[in-house]
Write a structure and sequence with these properties.
By secondary structure, this protein is α/β, with parallel strands linked by helices. The protein is built from eleven helices and eleven strands. It holds the Pfam family PhoH.
Length: about 325
Amino acid sequence: MSIATPTETVLEFPNNFLLIDLCGEHDRHIAAIEERLGVQILRRGNRLSVIGEDDSGTEAARVLNALYARLEAGRPVEPGDVDRELRMAAPEPVDADQIDLFKADPAAERIEIKTRRKLVEPRTEAQKAYVRALFDNELCFGIGPAGTGKTYLAVAVGVSMFLQGHVDKIILSRPAVEAGEKLGYLPGDMKEKVDPYMQPLYDALNDFLPGKQASKMMEEKVIEIAPLAFMRGRTLSRAFVVLDEAQNATTMQMKMFLTRLGEGSRMVVTGDRSQVDLPRGVTSGLHDAERLLKNIPKISFNYFTSKDVVRHPLVAAIIDAYEADGAA
């Protein structure tokens, strides 16, 4: 049996200031690449020497060059950007201004979502396919475990579409179902009662819009965050509508929600089939929607696995452990 001989690839980066940003604080970006790809990266002046087996060394060089090109374009490199380059195949950069939000080019390898506070980019192939589906379909389902960016990316696309004038309002909703525990009587007015259930949606929204702007838009009803029950009887026209935690909607609630879709609107339904909090014997509306609507044109179903978790590496390990126990 032959043993692979490590090879050395030397990369030269002319701008020493950008090289510092490429390496990261205390070389944390370099350390992340070394750990993920099993290579050794040594800094010598304005050069980085990558030592590793052929495939891993080539991939590490690609990641470093891609991140440096990002810095040359005036964009920062954060740990999430390093993670994305490590997960993705080699991208072909595309000017974000050339991407038609409603007809994203399927051949484009890089997709960016512009919001007021940040530029959001998918970090896995499944996320990339999901974002394309959000651009291309009037009704999109995102199904998978926690931490895979289903709701986060949907809200980002909604904010981007609103800022570019494609929709007139953003409506974010989720069922007000307790996660396995009875909270009892909650004091306060209606908003104070339902806000604890809606907090994850507020968190996502505040990542993309300055706090004062988000608050003003909510006061003006340009952004609505409301429980699923409040959708009954409405026709949602020229709106970007997100239903989060859809596994906790009943079949009738899901039908009610989906039939709110009005002219010029986009609708996104996200959920995790492994976290149903409905009473025993009550069928999840997400399950029924998946079964009934899967073959209808213009409705997209996108699936995520633990490999798409971007929240924390331990989250993926936890999901795998529970799935393995359930399959045993």
